[in-house]
Amino acid sequence: MTSLSSHSPGALAAICSNLAKACEKQYRTEEFQLFNTLEQYFSKHMEQSVGKHLDELTGLIQVDLNETFVTCEQLASEQGDRGTLRALTWGKKVTSIHKSLLTRYAKQGEKLLDNGDLYICEACGFIAISSETPAMCPICKAPASRFSKVQ
Amino acid sequence: MHAVRNLRLCTKDCLCLFVCPTGATDTETGQIDFAKCIDGCRLCVDACPSHAISLILETYPEPKVKESTIQKALNILLESKVSQEQLCSSVASNSEKATKALATALARSTRILAEDCARESAFMLPQSESVRQFLAELVDKPYGEDFPYDAVKRLLELL
């Protein structure tokens, strides 16, 4: 069993927003709202990041791709944990998309969105730069209705 | 098992209204009245042409607790994603235009990846022993006065 002492406020926020989503899908409206209340508390108390620039993200992402994902995949594979392997497969692809977006941003800067807007797949986290809502998520195959435009 | 209606899919074909033996599908809220819904009946589920109704379990089997090695590895990934989310949120609040939009999108996307780690490590099902234990630990933590202890206590009653 995992213990709370090992979780940062940010991780507790993600645990609570995950549980809020799970309650919403089970039509448990009151529980959905209560987990959101907890999520808001933990998000408010997340450590203030010292980071100022998006290029600091590239190094963190590279560690995930080279090490953290690999360790998780090996363990999930050994234990035949299909659910975790699926989440990791998509998570790694989305993380690679983050990396390529950062590369484009490093080259284009503020011109990045001159020819399109940012759309995010709410199912897997995939991000597209597009002039219209993508018809389907290339990673998890979710339909257009699962995309939100980032304002 | 009782029926639930996904209002995003419902196209008001209303076949559920005439197949339902109890009138449970006819409500002002658009949701199905659980008190009237017959356990496992599923007539409305099969009748709905837009596949907007499904059955939902009252009780789920208790999920198997995962090995501590995989839980630990997923927690490391969770913390890594959370620190990336924090960096992106911080950049988003201190910038504008394309940089702000990209940082916002990255923060939201990274949160989804963090939630996946949380789900797979131990928190898939809200009504499971690991979530109840998580909530019980929260109640005992000495957080500040603004911590919503009442929400945690209510969740422990409901789940």
How would you characterize the overall build of this protein?
The complex is a heterodimer of chains A (151) and B (159). Chain A folds into 3 domains: 7-44; 54-111; 115-151, Single Sheet (Rubrerythrin, domain 2), CATH 2.20.28. The N and C termini of chain A lie far apart (39 Å). In chain A, a hairpin with a 5-residue loop joins β1 and β2. Chain A has 151 residues and is mainly alpha-helical. Chain A has 4 helices and 3 strands, in the order ααααβββ. Chain A has a 3-stranded antiparallel sheet with strand order 2-1-3. In chain A, α3 (55-78) runs antiparallel to α4. With 159 residues, chain B is mainly alpha-helical. Chain B has 3 domains: 1-58, 2-Layer Sandwich (Alpha-Beta Plaits); 66-124; 126-159, no CATH class. Chain B contains 6 helices and 2 strands. Chain B has helices at 15-19, 43-47, 68-93, 97-121, 129-140, 149-158; strands spanning 2-5, 53-56. In chain B, α3 runs antiparallel to α4 and α5 (129-140) runs antiparallel to α6. The two termini of chain B are 17 Å apart. The chains are: A mainly alpha (151), B mainly alpha (159). Chains A and B meet through α1, α2, α3, α4 and β1 of A and α3, α4, α5 and α6 of B.
Structure summarized in a few sentences:
Chain A has 151 residues and is mainly alpha-helical. Helices cover 56% and strands 9% of the residues of chain A.
